[in-house]
Specification:
The structure is a single chain. This protein is of the alpha/beta class. The chain folds into 2 domains: 15-86 and 99-113, Aldolase class I (TIM Barrel); 119-233, TIM Barrel (Alpha-Beta Barrel). It has helices at residues 20-29, 41-47, 49-57, 72-85, 98-108, 126-131, 138-151, 164-171, 198-204, 213-216, 221-231; strands at 11-14, 36-39, 61-68, 89-93, 114-118, 156-158, 176-179, 208-211. The chain has an 8-stranded parallel barrel with strand order 1-2-3-4-5-6-7-8, surrounded by 6 helices. Helix 4 (72-85) runs parallel beside helix 5 and helix 7 runs parallel beside helix 8 (164-171). It is globular, with a radius of gyration of 17 Å. The structure holds cytidine-5'-monophosphate. The site of cytidine-5'-monophosphate has 14 residues, from strand 8 and helix 10.
């Protein structure tokens, strides 16, 4: 999947809602269907593949964020199922190891599906990581896992805006980068602590930005969406 050049194609709207009706209402409130919408564990677990089809039929492509982490054979089959659903992107944990990552990359071959590796969840600090037996700093583990995934043939990654420069610098321009945790200056940070503005994140090297509440919880989602697009021009 090529990195987008039009500003509106760089934005992925996070559909953090419990059911299909709410998801479609959100898309309709944007005025035009976004290029990409993210469907995560909550929405997919409650509605299943039908919500993916419903969002696609509104005209958006889907980023299915299910963070696969299982034995290589199971993950490979899950990747094939995602490709059959026609989603544009899906995620898997780089900590699943090289054999799992290679099996996933092979399963995606011949499809348009972009696989995105997740490294260390931003909810993990050094103490949390240490309690799982990993005694290096989170930022070092992020780079280690990003490199591992890229070498295994996973060409995309999800990372915090503050990690983009290091990861891009180390792995180069063939890597596709998706970053959540961006906040326009005019939006509340909410529970996002380490943030950048959308323009800063793109400048740092992000290809796509996952944006939820600054747009979805705005008084006018349509205006907020247009404002973010304008900031990226
Ligand atoms: O509402 P907000 O813009 O914070 O939504 C961002 C989306 O990206 C949510 O779906 C959230 O779960 C996801 N995400 C995140 N931070 C991460 C990983 C994922 O905000 N580190």
């Amino acid at each position: 999947m090529k990195a987008p050049s039009r500003p509106q194609d760089k934005i992925i709207i996070a559909l953090d809602v419990p059911d299909t009706d709410s998801a479609l209402r959100l898309i309709d409130a944007l005025g035009e269907a976004p290029a990409l919408c993210k469907i995560g564990l909550e929405l997919f677990t409650s509605q299943g593949p039908s919500v993916v089809k419903a969002v696609q039929s509104r005209g958006s492509r889907v980023f299915l964020d299910l963070k696969f982490h299982d034995i290589p054979n199971t993950v490979a089959h899950a990747v094939k199922s995602a490709a059959r659903l026609g989603v544009a992107m899906t995620t898997l944990h780089a900590s699943g190891g090289p054999v799992m990552l290679e099996a996933a990359a092979k399963a995606a071959e011949g499809s348009d599906l972009l696989l995105l590796a997740v490294t260390v969840l931003t909810s993990m600090d050094s103490a949390q990581l240490g309690s799982t037996g990993i005694s290096v700093e989170p930022k070092d583990q992020v780079l280690r896992l990003a490199t591992l995934a890229f070498s295994a043939g996973i060409v995309g990654i999800v990372c915090s805006p503050l990690e983009v420069t290091t990861i891009r610098g180390s792995l180069g321009n063939n890597l596709r980068i998706v970053t959540p945790g961006v906040r326009p200056t005019w939006a509340a940070a909410g529970d996002q602590k380490r943030v950048m503005t959308p323009a800063e994140a793109v400048q740092a090297g992000s290809d796509w930005l996952v944006i939820g509440r600054p747009i979805t919880a705005a008084q006018s989602p349509k205006e907020a969406y247009a404002k973010v697009v304008a900031e990226l021009i």
